[in-house]
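Entry 14. Two folds queued back to back today. First construct below, sequence then structure tokens.
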Amino acid sequence: MPVEALMDDDLDELAWLNLDDVSQTLDVSEIEHLYQTLELEEARIEVEISDCVEHRNSVDTRLAQLSALHKSVEATSLLVKPMQRVIDATAGNAGAISGHVRELDQERVKLEHALNTVKETVELKSRLSELLTAMETRDVDRASLLVHEYKATSSDTLDSPFIAFASDSSPPRDIIAAATKELVERVTFMFNTAVESSNTREIGRCFRLFPQLGETQRGLDLYSEFLCAAITDKTRLAQVHTTYALRITRLFEAIASVVDNNFALVEQYYGRGYVLRIIQRLQMEGARRACLVLDFFEEERQVKRRLAQIQQVDVAKPRPLVKAKAEKDDGISDGDFKDIASILAEVVLIGRQVAAFNRFLESRAQPEALLLLGDPETQARVFLSTESLNKLVPLSSALPNTMHVDAQTGLVAHTQLTSRVEWLTNVYVELETFCVQRSMAKAMALDDTNELSGWDSAVISDVEARAQGPMVQTSSCVGDVFFVAKTALEHAVAMQQPRAVEAIAQCVLEAFGEFVRVMGQQAVEKWADVASVQRRILVALNNLDLANVYLQKMVDEVRIRLNTEWARLPETDKTKGQNAIDSLSAISSKLLQAQQHSIDQLSTSLLKPCMRSILQHSYRDIKYVLSDEEFNDVQSDNLFQQRFNLRIRKLGHQLRPRLLPSTYTLVVDAMCACLVYDWERAIRQSKFNMLGGMMFEKDVRFVQLCLEQEAGGVLRAKFAKLVQMARVVAEPAETSVAGVDKDVRALLANRVDVQPN
């Protein structure tokens, strides 16, 4: 085995061989294995010895170099020993010096601290001297500034041993406390004196001194009282107005002006967020005064009596239409209704102003409140406490103890105005509901359908009868009804109360249900002459069509108005309002149903007789069994098409001025249905040959084209059955049977050139 194999494979095995174990081995195979291993190890050692012998010269050279290097190292060691002794001594001296330096540094720090303390003590003594001088000379501004600077003095200075040199009598803390107390009393007295004398410059000066004395709450509260008194002076002129909405408007405008004019002043001298205390105080003052105005409004306008009067009237009960004037069968005269309408208008204006005032305060307070969310300590100093809020509420106001400052908006929640707004909303809903029902009933009762001009002559299919002068297509009730509904919805949106919008939307839905019923009743009402019947049906159709257009426009405009005015309201309130407005779209389906019912009535009374008469007149002396010569004559002079075109144009000239464009399209569609029904019946009873069938197919195409021109649209679906029948009777005899639908198979029996099967 080669040496490389031994090094790679048996080196590990040789490492654990022990002579005692080898001597105790008795197995022959193990002895042979050990013997082979020893021989291999011996061969490996011989190889290594041979290598060493071959490189002997280089090994000797390296040993000589090592010996010379050893001598050089010993000589260098002898030279380094003196230097090492010097270094050791120097290191010892450096350690001692370092310790002394550290001690000196500590002493220097103590000395600097002592010097600073002495300096601050000297400055404190100077300030105390200046403070005492300022107090003697009544220099309030200088004294307040010195007190403010004293607050910046560190507690170490006040507790230092040098503090005894700063004052000859009392400790500085006692001197500053006494001076601060006296200054607060002086500034408060000066502020009250300035308020009594209306010295706004002195008021502003005292207001700026309170934060220097650490009396921010006192300064803000006194200034708030001054601003509330100023609001009283500003709103005194509005008391002469008898319109309570104007009084509340003047009140809220005065408060808004005060907030905007003093916002920057408070922020400059007190800091961000402190203006919230003034806003909250002004909010409570505005709520108190607004409640007083509403109390006087309720009493002077006799709101309770009007509500009781309305509750006794069952306006929801349908009233029969009258031809001239609406009967006053509800016990409320026109004068009473006018008073109720004026109260309603004032309630809406008041509700609008209250909502706008709340949104204004929220826009000013909420950004400041968000700054204080992470600072509970400052928040507690700025916000009015529950005890303070309760003191601002009159004892006569029985409010639940739920008033608190909302940390998110910075405003007082559940003020006394909140309950009055709920009362105002209830009053509004009652008044608006009554006015909507009463006004719509009156608008429908005073409908001028019978007085419309241009409807004296009836529609006749065989006479060219045109109206004399302009023809009024719709009656007055449509515009009146939608004016009432839109006005009511805009009032509800202005109140900015979801409950009001939901209630008025439901009221409008019910009122429009009555409107649809009245329009449907016009279509079936019996009258003495034909012209009156046609007028009421056609006007009802126009009214319903126009009402559908007005409805969509009204819903869109009110929705846009709601999204604009309710932009700052919570999303839940906006969603409720939008859902209430969108629910009005359900009226559209009722209008379409009533419109279809009116068209059915029109078809029965006018369209079917007219179309039957036109068809009969057009088919006079007309046949569809034609020879070649007759076919050519009919092609050059088609009497059927000429007669039909003349009669249908006459009918269109009479109907078009009486109907709106969209309504006229629906009527033409109904005319097609009547014509197709009678025409199919007539064709099933007629005889044909192939040439006659071809002419019939041309007649069908011509009639379809005429009516499409009248309708302004495509009527292919209406004529699909007739076109199929025409194609059947126009095909050659040998192919006419193949592929014929079952429902027209009987028509083949009318072909004189087709043998019956």
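Second construct, same run, same settings:
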Amino acid sequence: MILKENISEYQPKLIKKILLTLCWILALFVKGAEVREVNFLGCSHVEPKIWYRAISGEEFVLQCALPDRDATHIYNNSLLKQRTVKWFWQRDKEPLKAIKESSNSALQGDALWFKPVRDSDSGVFICMIWGKIPCLKIVLEVQTKKLAKCSGYDTSTLYLLAGNGNSITCPGTKCYSHIRKPDVKWYKDGHQIKEKKTRKSLKLKQNEIYVNPTYDKDAGIYVCDYVLYDNTTKWTMRTTVTVEVIGKPLELECRVQFGFERASLMRVTWKRNNKENVNEKLNQETSVYPEGLRGHTILHVAKLKEVTERDLGSNFTCFAENSVGNATAVIQLKRKQRVFLLRVLCSAISVLFALLLCTAFIYQHWIEIVLMYRSYLVRNETAGDGKEFDAFVSYAKLDSSESDSTLISEEKFALELLPDMLENKYGYKLCILERDILPGGAYTDEVVTAIKQSRRVIIILSPAYISGPSIFELQAAVNCALEDKKIKLVLIKFQAFQEPETLHPVVKKALRILPVITWKSSVSAAPNKFWKYMCYHMPVKTTKMLGNWSLKDFFLRLLSLVYR
């Protein structure tokens, strides 16, 4: 029993060891199969398609992609690409080796980077992208600057001053001076550089890039290619330039006045954080200006090649001393407020001010804008609604026993002035009970029928209307409007009035919530704002096609409101 229990305890551990051993064997088999698969598929008989030359000791990049004249990028750093690309290397007749990342080579996306490339990296590189490129051979020949006959080889790292004009030269053009070289193709961060209208400050001239001014975004890795022919082989010469954009230099001046001394022991120096560091890369220059018996003036200048975050957090102390004593002065650098924030603030204020002006303009001329919009852009809403009249006019009827002049003027407004403007000038069709309805029927039925055949009901309010029998027409109009949503009421306050307590609740509510237009003149018939308000509340009838002429006329009329 004890033996069986011990065996059962060690069985899981034994199984784990066996499975782990099998996994290692399978991994080694798959690894070897990857290399053997290239040979088995006949990759050894495939001819190289791309030939590159590189300079030893410089950065270099290879992309696993078939040659394409119209290609706009030379590498893709996507992690998905990296998982599908396999790289192998072979030199002379040595066995094929799978490439892994090392101290000088890195796999990034579909590219193989050398940081830097060495003479020993020369050979044939084979890359495969499963399902796309079964076998691509790339020949790389790495040469020294001496062998490549390089003269005045430019540095592969450039420091450009922000805000100034700078140029970037392709280092490879300084090599193979005995061979004629065509134009250079430039790439930044993998993408081809072309002159664009959106970036007029960047120019491509011969083999250089000119940027004026230089921005922080100009920093990055630049790759330049050009083609050269050596015997019958077409080589692509590829070199890289790393560009860093630095801030502007700064000079710190310290002017010290020393008195006259026969044996002068004057000394002036700059210190960072009150410490004189011997290793500090702080260029200092001293100029002495003798002033006779008055002594000497010394101008001591410290030059910073660029202002860094460390400089912004430091105190620079000018220390001056002679046989009499010493003195100090401290300068602390502060970050300059960016103009960008000021521009954003000014732009925001300008936009807000413009919005306020537009809002005030629209509020003041809302009626005119709506009427122009209707004239040119809105369809006729009266077509096919089955109604005969545009508006029914309701007013206080003149009784023969009354002789009040105000009632006469009110009737004149309803029977003469209102039809003259709305019918003759604006083209609306009004329904006036005494004029358009034949007598003989019941008054109440005729009013309700006329209202139902109208799109609007114009109520001319006055003390006589509110307290007289015509108030029935307002009540009937409210009831009809509740039944038919196409009927709308327009109230004209012809004279001031007080609501009687006996007024129907529906009529009281209508007087409070319905739009009211106030008539301020009983004589003038000029096209003033009153008639624009009337047209605003009347149904849309005018229909014009939106053509070139009407659109132009629309904007001309709109501008006339601005300059009125």
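Quick look at the second one. The CA atoms of residues 450 and 544 lie 30 Å apart. The chain has 13 helices and 27 strands.
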